[in-house]
Amino acid sequence: MPDPDAIPLLEVSNLSIDFVSEERIVHAVDGVSFSMQAGSTLAVVGESGSGKSVTALSLARLLPSPPAQIRSGKVFFEGTDLLTLPERALRHYRGGKIAYVFQEPSTSLNPVFSVGFQLSEAMALHRPDLQDRRAAGIAALTEVGIRDPERCWKSYPHELSGGMQQRVMIAMALVCRPRLLVADEPTTALDVTIQAQILQLLREIRSRFGMSILLITHNFGLVKGFADHVLVMFRGKIVEQGPTDAVLASPRHPYTQALIACVPRLGESKKRLTTIDYARLDALLSQS
After folding, report:
1. What value does the mean pLDDT of the chain take?
2. Containing H/E element for 80?
C-alpha cells in the first residue's frame, strides 16, 4: 500500500487547457487538481469529451500546440514541474518515467517495423546502458503473457491479434521501467474476454513492479476492484473524487449517480435504458 504521508509521485494543480481555432475557444480542461502516491492506482472516469484523455496527454506535454494551449496549472512529477521543462529535458520523462498505453494499439505500433525493432528502439532511448536488448525485450514479452515471445519479437503488428498488440504495447512500456503507466481506454477495442485478461495483466504488473497506474475509462464497471481512488470528470471539470469503494457505494454528484446507473447488471431487466439529464447537469455545473 502507498504511504499516504509520502510526497506524491504526481501532483496536478489547477490545470486548464484550451483548444484555440479561428472560430472559437474550447475549454477542454478547467481547473483540474489531483494527486497520486507511488504504487497507487487512480481511475479517471467520464464520457467521451469530458477531458479525461486531454488531461492524461498533458502530463507529458503530448498535446499538439497549436491548437492546444495550457492556460494555467502545474504538473509536478517527483517534485519537478513538467510544464516548465525544456523539450530536451522532457524526453527523459516521456516513456522513461511516464509511459502510455492507448486504446488502439494498431495505430500506436508502426506497421513497417517488427515488434523487436520497436522494443529495441524504446530501450535505446530510455535504457542506453542495457547490454542485451533482445534478451530484455523477450523477457518483457514473456512478462506480459505472450506464449511465444521469440516469434512475437520477429513479427510485424499486422500479424498479431488486437489483444496481442495491446500486450506488446504494455511490454514496450514495461521494458523502460517507468514509475507511472497511463492506460488510456486500454480495453475499448477488445472483446470482453480479452478485456478481462488485459485488466488482470495490469493488476499483476502493478503488484510485481510497484508501478503506479492512471486508468482512463468511460466505464464504471472496470473500476471496482482495480483502482484505489477514482475521480469523475464532466465538461472538463472534476465533479467528484475519492476512494473507489466510497464513491461506488455512495456517489454524491448526480453525474456520478447517472454513470453508475448506466452500468448494465446481470440478471436485471429494464423496460427502459437509463439516460442522463444533461440539461440538469449543465445547470448544476454553472452554479458551482
Report:
1. 89
2. strand 80-81
Per-residue pLDDT tens over the stretch 46-93: 998 999 999 999 999 999 988 999 999 999 999 999 999 998 889 889
In sequence order, what are the residues at sequence separation of 6 or more whose Cβ sits closer than 8 angstroms to the Cβ of residue 150?
138
- How many domains, the chain? 1
Cβ pair 156, 113 in contact under 8 A: yes
CA–CA dist 15, 63 (Å, integer): 14
Nearest to 127 by CA among 117, 139, 119: 119
Q: Which domain holds residue 138?
A: 98-177
What are the C-alpha distances in Å from 62 to residues 59, 147, 223? Answer: 8, 33, 25
Residue 135 located in a structural domain: yes
Do the beta carbons of residue 153 and residue 146 sit within 8 Å? no
HSE, side-chain direction, 13 A CA sphere, residue 264: 7
User: What number is the average pLDDT over the span 168-194?
Assistant: 88
- Please identify which residue in the block is written with the cell numbers 488486437: 162
For range 107-120, the mean pLDDT: 94
**Residue 128 falls inside a structural domain:** yes
Residues in the chain: 288
Task: Decide if 62 is inside a domain.
Answer: no
In terms of Cα–Cα distance, which of 251, 192, 223, 224 is closest to 52?
A: 223
Tell me, yes or no, whether 116 lies in a domain.
yes
Lowest mean pLDDT among 82-91, 118-127, 169-178, 257-266: 257-266
Measured in whole angstroms, how far is the alpha carbon of residue 101 from the centre of its chain? 7
Sequence-distant (≥ 6) Cβ neighbours of residue 274 within 8 angstroms: 258, 261, 262
pLDDT of residue 222: 84
Which tops the pLDDT comparison, 166 or 1? Answer: 166
Instruction: Output phi, psi for 66, to 5 deg.
Output: -70, 165
